[in-house]
Amino acid sequence: MRQSPIKLSINSSIIRPLPRIFFGNYDVRLKRPLKLANKGYTVEMAIPQTRNGQKPFIAGGLLRGQYVAEGVHLHWGSPASGGSEHMVNKRRYDAEMHIVHRNARYTNIDEALNYSDGVAVLGIMFKIVRIPDRIYPGLKKIYAELPNLVEYHSEAKLPGSITLGQLLGDLNTRDFYTYRGSLTTPECNEAVTWTVFAKPLPVAMTDVVKLWKLQDSDGNLIRNNYRVLQRRNNRPVFYRTPESQ
Ligand SMILES: [Zn+2]
């Protein structure tokens, strides 16, 4: 009844003056080590505590209370097609980053997945541009490690440190779609409040090519690791407008 991903468009959304997403500790450096891992179906980074001994968290939008950041991973396509999970205004973007958060009232992600309000995921679209005109220091460090993550179960540590906010850079976080859905990987738990930002971040082709070279446990290339579109089943999708706050 509430599976993800789905098609998103302004025309099919309820335009509503929702609060902006509040980013807590997103500007505080994360403790080291920052480990990236090839999971066989994606590349993932677990999110450690920040240097002030807390964790990054979000609030606002459709969320009630605070949601603590747990992990970041990516979905991508192939040289023949884009690979975002959500389609935005009929467009499948080149890649989609997910920052997974769990409701602070639950102890860990496994517990949170049992509740309809257990998890909040931020979806960030990536669009290939010929010559990126901005540098994203956090993402740049991740892209730089991808060649060390080609094999299944390989791990790499990010050099130096980053803030979680450095994965968003100058992304417009005021305009977003939000709806109640699910994880897009098994067990597809219907526990996720999705917040998908309407505008993409630019990415260089050379960096997306690195994703296309990653391998699964059989040595096959991990490509098109997005789930097919799911039925909306009359669910409301909300779109936040810039005028609203
Ligand atoms: Zn995902």
UniProtKB/TrEMBL annotation:
<keyword id="KW-0479">Metal-binding</keyword>
<comment type="function">
    <text>Reversible hydration of carbon dioxide.</text>
</comment>
<feature type="domain" description="Alpha-carbonic anhydrase">
    <location>
        <begin position="1"/>
        <end position="241"/>
    </location>
</feature>
<protein>
    <recommendedName>
        <fullName>Carbonic anhydrase</fullName>
        <ecNumber>4.2.1.1</ecNumber>
    </recommendedName>
</protein>
<dbReference type="Pfam" id="PF00194">
    <property type="entry name" value="Carb_anhydrase"/>
</dbReference>
<keyword id="KW-0456">Lyase</keyword>
<comment type="similarity">
    <text>Belongs to the alpha-carbonic anhydrase family.</text>
</comment>
<dbReference type="InterPro" id="IPR023561">
    <property type="entry name" value="Carbonic_anhydrase_a-class"/>
</dbReference>
<keyword id="KW-0862">Zinc</keyword>
<dbReference type="GO" id="GO:0004089">
    <property type="term" value="F:carbonate dehydratase activity"/>
</dbReference>
<dbReference type="GO" id="GO:0005737">
    <property type="term" value="C:cytoplasm"/>
</dbReference>
<dbReference type="InterPro" id="IPR018338">
    <property type="entry name" value="Carbonic_anhydrase_a-class_CS"/>
</dbReference>
<dbReference type="GO" id="GO:0008270">
    <property type="term" value="F:zinc ion binding"/>
</dbReference>
<dbReference type="InterPro" id="IPR036398">
    <property type="entry name" value="CA_dom_sf"/>
</dbReference>
<dbReference type="InterPro" id="IPR001148">
    <property type="entry name" value="CA_dom"/>
</dbReference>
